[in-house]
Specification:
Layout (H helix, E strand, L loop, with lengths): L1 E9 L4 E2 L2 E2 L4 E9 L14 E11 L17 H7 L65 H6 L10 H9 L6 E7 L7 E11 L16 E3 L11 E6 L2 E15 L2 E16 L5 E10 H11 L1 H8 L3 H11 L2 E3 L6 E14 L1 E3 L1
Parallel strand pairs: 8-15
Antiparallel strand pairs: 1-4, 2-3, 5-6, 5-14, 6-7, 7-9, 9-10, 10-11, 11-12, 12-14, 13-14
Helix pairs in contact: 4-5, 4-6
């Protein structure tokens, strides 16, 4: 496989350490030329746009009323200091214990999301073969938005916007702990385009950082050498400047402090908004295996993570199980995955394959 740099005049500019330079410039796109299907001459290679994620966090729904009227759930530290309860380490065997005081988010909310299962779901009236749950609404009132992970963790203090989990994840995408690359093929028109192919890759490279701490554009980053962290491709279209592409599988590797594991999404989608400066922003949706989610926050983070973020592992385990809404077992009917939603921003990059 060979690589070539293609120069194309575009609307975007270049970024330095303090921001994007004004005026139109040259958009640089790294094209991986040659494949198992051609002779290596590059004639069949299509122009691709590469990006590296520069900001990444959970999607935080908006609520008209207090979403956790009973307050946040208590973790081991609060239980010990406020209630005099010394909780045993329940992280390696969460089913052995129970936390009846664990709080999940029950109220309505709005977020920029997608209807992943094609159903308007209700806890009180589930469809045949569906794990009962209440959907959220879209920003414009659309019904059926799936985001059950937030039902499970939305009343945990450490998962709130600006708190520990949010901060750690934001740092991970710029310090090399969880580098995420996006590859878009076939964007002929950023306003309306009937076919674009999207793919998400993990990477072990560290993004280039400017003097102000922001991720610099047009760095060369290599996709992960392990093909396990190469997502499948998803096809979509651009309508009024917004690309929605999927379904696709996404599998990322994270090595954040005490957590070393996988972050994957089945039947995932990207929602991408093209920005005048050449960057993109949007959301990433899909279904994460419940066992994987618990491995990250229960097994991997352990008692230290539970105490820092303020939850009990037994309570979290039960919340993830009861909130799960995807891929039901054909025999038991129990759902094995839970819908997740992340927001991101990304700058242009040379994605080397």
């Amino acid at each position: 496989m060979t690589y070539r740099v293609i120069l194309a005049r575009g609307r975007g500019g270049f970024r330095n350490g303090s921001g994007l330079l004004a005026a139109a410039g040259l958009a640089l796109v790294l094209c991986a030329c040659g494949s198992d299907d051609d002779d290596g001459s590059g004639d069949s290679a299509a122009l691709r746009r590469g990006y590296v994620i520069s900001s990444f966090s959970y999607v935080y729904p908006e609520h008209d009323e207090e979403p956790c009227p009973g307050g946040f759930t208590k973790g081991p530290l609060e239980m010990r200091l406020e209630d005099g309860v010394v909780l045993p380490d329940d992280c390696n065997d969460p089913e052995r214990y129970s936390d009846p005081g664990f709080k999940t988010l029950q109220g309505p909310g709005r977020l920029p999301g997608l209807d992943l299962d094609g159903l308007i779901s209700s806890e009180q009236a589930p469809a045949d073969g569906e794990c009962a749950h209440d959907d959220f609404s879209g920003e414009l009132g659309e019904r059926g938005i799936d985001y059950q992970f937030w039902r499970a963790v939305g009343c945990i203090r450490g998962f709130q916007k600006g708190d520990i989990s949010n901060t750690v994840v934001e740092e991970a995408v710029i310090n090399g702990s969880m580098t995420i690359l996006i590859d878009l093929e076939g964007v002929d028109d950023e306003r309306n385009d009937d076919e674009v192919v999207a793919q998400v890759f993990g990477s072990t490279d560290v993004p280039s950082i400017g003097a102000d701490g922001s991720v610099l554009p047009f760095a060369t980053l290599t996709i992960h050498e392990d093909t396990q962290y190469h997502g499948t491709s998803g096809t979509g279209e651009v309508v009024d400047g917004v690309l929605v592409a999927g379904p696709m599988d996404i599998n990322l590797r994270l090595n954040i402090q005490i957590v070393d594991g996988d972050q994957s999404m089945r039947d995932g989608y990207l929602r991408v908004e093209f920005q005048p400066d050449g960057s993109i922003k949007g959301q990433m949706f899909g279904y994460q295996p419940v066992d994987e989610a618990y491995d990250i926050f229960g097994i991997q983070a352990g008692a230290a993570g539970a105490e820092a973020l303020s939850y009990t592992c037994s309570g979290l385990w039960e919340a993830l199980q009861s909130s799960a809404d995807g891929h039901p077992d054909p025999v038991t009917g129990a759902c094995s995955t839970i819908s997740v939603a992340y927001r991101f921003e990304a700058v242009p990059a040379f994605v080397a394959k």
